Amino acid sequence: MNSLVRFEPKTVTEVAESIRDAATRGRVLRLRGAGTWMDVGHAVQADAELSLGAFTGITSYRPEDLTLSAGAGTTLAELEAATRVHGQWCPLFPWGDDRGTVGATIATGTAGPFAAQLGRPSTLALGVECVDGTGRVIAAGARVVKNVAGFDLTRAVTGSWGTLAVITQVHLRLRSQPAVDETWALAATESTDATVRAFADGPFAPLGCERVSAPDARELGLGAARWLVRIGGNATLVAAARGAIRALGVAYEVDARTWNAIRQRGAPAARATLWRWDSLSSRLRERFDPARVLNRGLLGEVA
Amino acid sequence: MNTLAPLQRARAGLDSCVHCGFCLPACPTYLALEDENDSPRGRLLLMGALLDGSVNPDDPAVRRHLDQCLGCRGCETACPSGVPYGQLLEATRESLVTHRPLPLVARLVLRLFATEWALRSVLAIARLIRWSGIAALLARLLPARLAMPFAMLASSARPAPASYDARGDGARGTVSLLTGCVMEGLFTDVNRATERTLTVNGWKMRVTADQRCCGALHAHAGDAVMARALARANIAAFERSGAEVVVLNSAGCGAMCREYGHLLADDSAWADRATAFGAKVRDVHQLLASAGPAVRAGADERHPRLGTPVATRVAYDAPCHLQHAQRIVDAPLAVLQAVSGINLVPLADSDQCCGSAGIFNLLLPDVAERVLAPKLSRIVESGAEIVATGNPGCLMQIGGGLCLSGSAVTTRHPVELLDETYARAERPR
Amino acid sequence: MTSLAAQLGRIVGDAHVIARATQLLVYRSDALPGLQRAPARAVFPGTRDELIEVVRVLAAAGAPFVSRGAGTGLSGGALADDITLLGLHRLKRILALDPIARTATVEPGVVNAALTRAGAPHRLHYAPDPSSQTACTIGGNIAENAGGPHCLKYGVTLDHAIRATVVLPSGEVVILDRGDVARDDGTQGGYDLLGAFVGSEGCFGVVVDVTVRLTPDPERVCTLLADFTRVRDAADATSRIIAAGIMPAALELMDQPTIEAVESSVYAAGYPRDAAAVLLIEVDGAAAGLDDDVWAVERLCRAAGARTVRVAHDAAERARLWLGRKKAFGAMGRVAPHLVVQDAVVPRSMLAELLDDIAAIGDRHRVRICNVFHAGDGNLHPNIPYNAHNADESARVHAAMTEIMTRCIAAGGTITGEHGVGLDKLPYMEQLFTADTLDAMCSLRAVFDPERRANPGKVVPVRACREWHGVASTRHGARAGETR
Fold first, then answer.
1. Cα-based torsion angle of the residue sequence B397, B401, B403, B407 in order, rounded to the nearest 10 degrees
2. pLDDT of residue A30
3. A58-62 and A125-132 as β-strands: parallel, antiparallel, unpaired?
4. What is the greatest pairwise CA distance in chain B?
5. Which residues pair with C277 in a beta bridge?
6. Residue-range domains of chain A with CATH
7. How do residues B331-387 score in pLDDT, each as one tens digit?
8. CA dist list (Å): C126 to B24, C21, C110, C151, C375
């Protein structure tokens, strides 16, 4: 696979040209960001690789708007660093790690442990610039947090695993970091699971609340912990939430970086292998990539 | 001659509609008939179309949609731009009767209400039918559609009237009751209860002779000529009796009396007198609530020993012409809360019309029945044993509907319940 | 062959088909009466099966149609130009409400506020709350991806939609979801077809039923009213609050002309009439720590120059403050007989500048602009009350609106945040999107409605679709084969 021809277009126009060229020649392109997802899904019988390596960097960031635009190839780590200095988060935090690119996170629709509170990729993507399988250069959405102008191409492309279009740039919604942010390991018996879930759904709205398996807990130095809980908000709220966690079992505060390890462990990628191919989905693919240039076979579509 | 002149004069009211549609869920006929032509927004549009000539006043469909309005004015409460819907509707109907007379039944009923001796006789016969049990019997035996009028009549029967010696200091002023046609004819006991409870609460009652029907039925149906004649008679009668306050216990009549000024606005000889009359009008609940009905205070001060409180579940249903036309919302609840032992249960959609609407239920029984159906369901769901409401039409429409559906729930006027508490308090254990 | 109206009447009953012109008058417009189109007929199915059958009969006849909920839309989206109007208001049953899973499945005609009422006994509510929530339908909300004040914190309609059963214009019935759920057939992934469908303005198909998320009522709610002597200061306060990391449930701005209209209406909320602008701010969530946020908001407002900051002390006062806001648009009916309502979004940081520009545009065209909008989202609603019978004034209003929209686009904003494109904003689409993007939108539509029979002529200008360019509009093609 590594011997594949690799295109690394520098501009959107070049992306469109590569795609049109591939379509004409009946070639299949394998899309590549940081390459962290290449083993997920069905096998792609690709003729060449299309790398987004040139589309890196933050193209627009206005902290007071809580929005950011970045090239698809920008890593999450870069976004994390850029937003942190303004007390903000790029709230994607997907399963996997921050070496991955923002383009791939949106393209695969990969959520993470904080998605329920901070938003899923499908909520956080305010817009995308992309090139579809016919070479159309699409600029969908805008750098505003609310937008219903036109049919929602952003939603269609987000989570489509690059089978409709190649994302070159994304516009994202950011979040302010909470004033206090604590992560707690909670050792509790199985019998309290329902209570913990009720806490997770309750008014304290913890940022994350994940079950940790016993082997994982041991490996991460969490001892007998069964849950990892992240709470954020103002000091009074967090103090009250802390009390509520302690009431659930033996709890102790741990480093927030524990979540990075958790994210790497949980990487549910079954979506790509267990894809629903109904008539609408097939028609969608057909309309945007009739020659099946992009990631052909990745989602197991019947040829 | 422009036969649409009354509507033309009211045109400015039409212009304030911004077409937002907030009135739709507030309209009982829209909810029941599910066509926007039967909604306030639709009817306002038809009124505008009548004026600009894009629909013909003789168009039967247009007339039907305008006729099918209950005139409950629930839309006025929901309207953010303050469209005077009730006035527009009456102006429209007044305009349309010049094109085509009202149906025979309507004309007969309206004539009846304007003819004192005939009305008295008919009401006396009705009381006889009710007293003899024939009404209840026919309500049971006849098919539903025909049985409804008898069920309504049967439901107007009151339990044995409370009797006690109502005393008060009369310090709050002198009031005179506009007794009303149906109230005095079929709900006599409610009128007496009204007088007693007002007396207990410090008003001095004065009788006004030569009263007539208030004219509400006529105005709503478009017979403005007759409505104005009746209004003039009432204004003159109450001027003669010198009452400071005109009190009513019928929401529909009260709403009409308040609007005498509007009704007679173009009559230079009467306009000012009509406005002055309207300003004196009060609903009985308003007066009682403003006094803080005596039972709670009285329980401590005047009536140390209450009669045995009866724990009864009571639901309040707001008459449209109290809630929407007069915007009196809390006073009836205050009166009910003063009733000893009562358990007020919430009634969903209590601000929605029951379908009575004057003589509407006689003219369009189909529509009235469809509007009533959800009301009866909500009452059953509320678990109430008694539905309290301050308007004769609603008392009978809901009462008749409950009777026909085999329900044991009864309808009472809030004042009746207060009166009973007072009576019990007079009879120490 | 029988007429289409008669065929439809056989399905839904003749009482629920309208073909008389005088009875179709009321169906000529939505809540933007400046735009009117006369439908050829209207049909109101009363059950799911009737709805599907109606769509199939329309498909067999090749007849285009427009879906309509309560007609409270503000973009002329539900207008049927001499074609069939499909009214969904009779489909108003709440089919299921699961308080444990916090979901409800409803028919498209269920009124937004009715769903919240149904959730109330379980301390749940339906979060998207457009100002028309007492009247608008969930089906219409889905079509428009409706927003509302509380969408600042809780998200728009799409964020609360889980699954929808949809009848496509072909008559095919499909189930749409967000593409990230485990399904009965064992699949777990898929395209975000529901995401594409929500907000498609009735051009993709008709909702048969939709499952939505219900949101727990917050433990505590606190509503503040801050008043300012300069509109700019109110916009500045907005930025400060958001920048401070506080996420209010809602953050609404009303300017002086709007305050005046509201205070003159039955919904007078006690807004100070002499203020240049007020901010209505709601903070909600866990009881613990809420006061800290309230104090912070109060401090930030004062720092931005607020004259007074009032905290609503009870539910009744809170309700009154909100009622004024929610009825503001209707209350403008008192100012003049007609009203244009706009809906643009700009980056929040540009609000103050944009408001100055809008005021200048208003002055230049001598029109009275009332601003009432979701400041926290940067979602502007400049509204202009006017008299449409006055041709000169109408022209000035139109010119001012066009200029405002162009200004918002130049600021990197968008032409609609929650009202939809419909007919009203069609002219701006080519200003906002490239030809390729518009063509891609046409392709997305073609996935659901290749014959483009559902709400034809809306959202994307027909000429922007290369595939359809030059082809005679379906409407005329279809009508040729149709007997009335």
1. -130
2. 96
3. unpaired
4. 71
5. C228, C255
6. 1-178+267-303 (3.30.465.10), 180-265 (3.30.70)
7. 999 888 888 778 899 999 999 999 998 888 888 889 999 999 999 999 999 999 999
8. 20, 37, 12, 11, 22
A271 falls in which pLDDT band (50, 70, 90)? confident
- Residue of B16, B24, B42 lying closest to C334 (CB–CB): B16
Which residue among A120, A136, A278 sits closest to C439, beta carbon to beta carbon? A136
pLDDT higher than 50, residue C477: no
Q: For A48, left (φ over 0), alpha (ψ -120 to 50), or beta? A: beta
Closest Cα partner for C435 from A169, A150, A70?
A: A150
Residues of chain A found within 8 Å of residue C410, distances taken between Cβ atoms: none
* Residue among C183, C247, C292 whose CB faces A236 most closely: C292
Q: Does C31 touch chain B (CB under 8 A)?
A: yes
CA B399/CA A230 separation, integer angstroms: 59
Q: Which two tokens stand for residue C79?
A: 């207008």
Topology (CATH level 3) of domain C336-432: Alpha-Beta Plaits (3.30.70)
pLDDT tops 80 at residue B427: no
Give ranges for CATH 3.30.70.2190 in chain C: 219-334
Architecture of domain C94-216: 2-Layer Sandwich (3.30)
Interface of B with C (CB under 8 A): 15-25, 34-37, 39, 41-42, 45-46, 49, 54-56, 59, 61-62, 65, 77-83
pTM: 0.93
Across the interface, whether the CB atoms of A137 and C434 are under 8 A apart is answered: yes
Pick the CATH number of C219-334 from 3.30.70.380, 3.30.70.2190, 3.40.190.10, 2.30.30.90: 3.30.70.2190
| pLDDT per residue as tens digits for the range C251-267 | 999 999 999 989 988 78
Quick check: C347 and A143 CB within 8 A?
yes
Confidence check on the interface: ipTM exceeds 0.90, yes or no = yes
Cα separation, B312 vs B334, in Å, equals 16
CA–CA min distance C342, chain B (Å)? 14
With a cut of 60, say whether residue B307 has pLDDT above it. Answer: no
C16 near B CB under 8 A: yes
Domains of chain B: 5-97 (1.10.1060.10), 303-426 (3.40.50)
Query: A-chain residues within 8 Å CB-CB of C414?
Result: 142, 144, 147, 149
Give the integer Cα–Cα distance in Å for B312 and B303: 21
Residues of B in contact with C25 (CB under 8 A): 45-46, 49, 54-55
* CATH 3.30.70.2740 domain range(s) in chain C: 336-432
pLDDT category, B309, cuts 50, 70, 90?
A: low
Which of C156, C158, C445 lies nearest to residue A151, judging by beta carbons? C445
Classify the C-alpha dihedral B32-B34-B38-B39 as positive or negative: positive
Element at C84 (helix H, strand E): strand C84-87
Where along chain C do the CATH 3.30.465.10 domains lie? 94-216
Q: Is the pLDDT of residue B218 over 80?
A: yes
Neighbors of chain A with 3 or more C-beta pairs under 8 Å: C
Minimal Cα–Cα distance from B318 to chain C, Å? 19
pLDDT digits (tens, 9 = 90+) for B251-266: 999 999 999 999 999 9
* Beta-carbon-side half-sphere exposure of residue C211 (alpha carbons within 13 Å): 15
CB contact under 8 A, B80 and C22: no
* Chains B and C touch, using 3 or more CB pairs below 8 Å: yes
Has residue B240 got a pLDDT over 70? yes
Q: Please name the member of A142, A177, A270 whose beta carbon is closest to the beta carbon of C245.
A: A177
Of A234, A124, A146, A130, the closest CA to residue A182 belongs to A234
Per-residue model confidence (pLDDT) at position A37 = 86
